[in-house]
Task: inverse folding
């Protein structure tokens, strides 16, 4: 087995009275493409925030690159849910991607020339090299998602963590985003959180199903039985081109 | 118009007023852009009104009201900033409380000051025609300080304004830069109070930057355009108020408001027309 990058041991988290995560144990290895799936409110975002060190669990141990999540932050490239962004913010694509250099560039004054080169490379990797000067407002949903991935790549991370990368974009573009992630997985570990269980299974190497507790932790396939257990009933809505049971 | 220019060349107080307005535009454009993109107009309003408490106290103690204003503005900014960091859902209430209590304290202390003769109206609505030379120097140095801080930490302030969570993950001290930003806004409020008074401050802080935001798509350009617009409105307001013998602060704000309205309506019509033109009927 390859190197462990992230390990969670019996992690529990509650917001006041509400228990969001209960005894979750999970390890993520180098070069994996792991999907964490689960219904809305299943604690997926909380789990991500714990891995990123934005929240501290009341119980359990979390290690990222063998150290605390807060200390390991600069080695992670994070792609937040893009639907929450103010689409009218006056900022260009290049300025957005350059933010990935924060924490590694100098403290005072502007970015360095090397930062600009890294940002440009990251944009080219997501095939948006020519859009660097465009304002963010002029982008489509799929393009914005790629810009946020480029920003995470500009961090020169060892692992890429994405929160619902395909929510609110149409299925054709969604496929493109996952193809891109698949390509990036050749050199990076990728962790994707999604409620879109059907589509994700085509790309990932391993899936963890979350609903407060880790319901399943499959290494290869998702069965209808698992989904029933996870979502608490037979799932009627399946993805446009994916029949869950056939996987 | 000739009378305004004549007055400008012959009267030192008119020159002071013009310079005051132009200097204030710099802080107005820079800090105003942050107010607009971070949507903290209500915080800026709270700081502006709380300032009267500090001015009243300084006046009561026989100190300089401007010094009182600076201290009160910074204290109010730090209190609001701290509350919004620690108890986010109390932020709104805290602002409301500071807003009204600050004013009440100011009014009471001014009323109780022996030999009461302060012109409360000029604190509330500004009187740029009375601006002393020492205040021009103060505004100049505050401008320098604000611009310097923004130039040095532009990338951090941009990152914190755009995406706090990501900035924190890149080990930027989000709390520090949020508070710094509020302090910059607080100092700008003190500057603009000299021009339009504390009740009208919010218009000059938000509207030039909001108009700029309708035309440019980068924060630095927004600051530049907002500064130029601020200079245009303060100078235009001063000239109109002189010409028609109107209160300068209110005239400036009204001009700014009308420009915002015209820009918003004009912009919408322009876009509507563009869409109509390219869409086959």
Result:
């Amino acid at each position: 087995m390859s190197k462990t990058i992230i390990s969670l041991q019996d992690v529990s988290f509650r917001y006041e009275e509400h228990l969001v995560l209960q005894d979750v144990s999970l390890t993520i290895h180098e070069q994996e493409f792991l999907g964490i799936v689960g219904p809305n409110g299943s604690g997926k975002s909380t789990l991500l925030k714990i891995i990123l060190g934005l929240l501290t669990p009341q119980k359990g141990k979390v290690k990222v690159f063998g150290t605390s999540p807060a200390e390991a932050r600069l080695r992670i490239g994070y792609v937040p849910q893009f639907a929450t962004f103010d689409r009218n913010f006056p900022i260009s694509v290049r300025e957005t991607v350059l933010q990935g250099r924060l924490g590694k560039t100098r403290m005072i004054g502007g970015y360095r020339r090397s930062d600009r080169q890294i940002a440009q490379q990251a944009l080219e990797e997501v095939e948006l090299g020519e859009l660097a000067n465009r304002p963010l407002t002029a982008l489509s949903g799929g393009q914005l998602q790629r810009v946020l991935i480029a920003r995470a790549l500009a961090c020169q991370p060892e692992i890429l963590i994405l929160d619902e990368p395909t929510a609110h974009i149409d299925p054709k573009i969604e496929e493109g985003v996952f193809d891109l992630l698949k390509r990036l997985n050749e050199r990076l570990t990728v962790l994707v959180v999604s409620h879109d269980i059907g589509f994700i299974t085509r790309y990932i190497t391993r899936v963890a199903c979350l609903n407060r507790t880790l319901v399943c932790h499959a290494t290869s396939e998702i069965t209808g039985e698992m989904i029933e257990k996870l979502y608490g009933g037979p799932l009627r809505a399946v993805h446009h081109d994916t029949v869950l049971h056939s996987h | 118009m000739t009378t305004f220019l004549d007055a400008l060349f012959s009267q030192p107080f008119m020159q002071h007023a013009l310079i005051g307005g132009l200097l204030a535009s710099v802080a107005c454009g820079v800090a105003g852009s942050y107010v607009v993109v971070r949507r903290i107009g209500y915080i800026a309003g709270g700081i502006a009104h709380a300032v009267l408490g500090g001015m009243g106290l300084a006046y009561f103690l026989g100190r300089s009201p401007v010094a009182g204003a600076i201290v009160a503005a910074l204290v109010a900014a730090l209190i609001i900033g701290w509350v919004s960091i620690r108890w986010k859902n109390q932020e709104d209430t805290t602002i409301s409380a500071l807003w009204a209590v600050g004013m009440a304290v100011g009014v009471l202390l001014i009323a109780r000051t022996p030999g009461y003769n302060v012109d409360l109206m000029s604190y509330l609505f500004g009187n740029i025609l009375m601006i002393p030379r020492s205040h021009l120097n103060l505004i100049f140095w505050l401008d320098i300080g604000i611009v310097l801080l923004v130039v040095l930490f532009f990338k951090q302030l941009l990152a914190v304004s755009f995406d706090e969570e990501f900035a924190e993950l890149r080990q930027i001290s989000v709390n520090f830069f949020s508070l710094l930003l509020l302090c910059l806004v607080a100092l700008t409020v003190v500057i603009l109070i000299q021009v339009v008074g504390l009740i009208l401050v919010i218009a000059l802080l938000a509207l030039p930057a909001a108009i700029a935001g309708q035309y440019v798509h980068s924060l630095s350009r927004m600051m530049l355009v907002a500064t130029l617009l601020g200079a245009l409105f303060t100078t235009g307001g001063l000239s109109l108020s002189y010409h028609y013998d109107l209160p300068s602060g209110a005239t400036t704000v009204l001009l700014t408001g009308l420009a915002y309205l015209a820009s918003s309506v004009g912009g919408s019509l322009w876009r509507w027309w563009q869409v109509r033109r390219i869409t086959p009927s």
